[in-house]
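Quick log. Single chain, no ligands specified.
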Amino acid sequence: MYDSLPLAQVRHARPDTARPLTAASLRQFSRSSRVARSFGSLGIALCLSASFAMTALTSVDAHAQARPKALAQSSQSSQTEFEEEVVPQRYAANPEVDAFINDLVARNGFNRGELQKIFSRVVFSQTAARLVAPPATPGQKNWTKYEKNFLDNTRINGGVRFWNQNAAALSRAAREYGVPEEIIVSIIGVETIYGRNMGNFRTIDALTTLAFDYPPARNRSERMALFRKELENLLLYARERSVDPFSIYGSYAGAIGIPQFMPSSIRNYAVDYSGDGKINLTTDVADAIGSVANFLKQHGWQAGQPVVWNIAGDRGSQGLAEAGADGQPEPHWKLGDFIKAGMLMNEPKLDVGGALDTPVLIVDLPTPGQATQYRMGLTNFYVLTRYNRSFFYAMAVYDLADAIKAARAP
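-> predicted structure:
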């Protein structure tokens, strides 16, 4: 399922303040869904169609994306078998590739001859190009269907087993990075079902294809530029680690290993958590656990703080939530803005009076034919969207984490 393109990670400034909003203006917004929709247009709509890119394009480097149904690696031998149609020699003596090579030589000191040999062996991946192509008819976002793909017995029971088998590494990561064990487990479960489905595409073929032959799309030039950056990072990673770039396999969009990190994220956030002197996200579970935790911490995870709050189900509170659902992932309102406008919270343990200055955002979760669900996201919800710029993704990670923790409880 093509839920999300690897267009996730951005070095966003952490939101320290929330923009003020008067109670009167929020009430005015809540009177009309048309006005609420225009209100949303003030920001970047990041939760796209569930049948296409659940992730919005960003301006800086990219990160891992959800690959819930990535091609499975059934055995070690499958690493040498392509699950795709390929076209050889497409990138040998290619003017665009030659210009890319010249740039890498100038900026990174690569050997031109070695890069030319590499790209003479790279093959065009027709399957990768097909899978990233936008659908002819975009589908409707469907939260209920999306969530069912992740909150199943395979991921819940598998999450309990994964947690039990790796309890020491998870406990250590929770202490050192402040990220709860269940969140780390859930992300790995959503990404690859605990390492089961990491993808069988040769990464250099997939990235080169998308860097130079991305299919027609609205943001084609930006996407190609992004994949060229990831291709550069793959080559840098291979050089730094003395790894054959043709030995690296992953998803059709270039995500690698148990946590599905893009090459730039491996270089920036992956850690040697097992202490063996090398980083291995494909077979070293401890490295994957530590790397996920480090990624979230580096993007602003707040230890001991909640991810979302529940909003009361009365019509007035839901109307205010609809008005505030502008699609922006950053917590840019204050809780007090909504409380003063009349919103009620369904959080018995929440000290509302003491939390009025808390930066928040409204998470909208639409399902065709049903009332849209709304939740209030906090900074930690925003951090989850740094892993994948999709409200659906972040909410699925949170709900799966809760389910795994409950299933593991004595």
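The longest helix spans residues 220-241.
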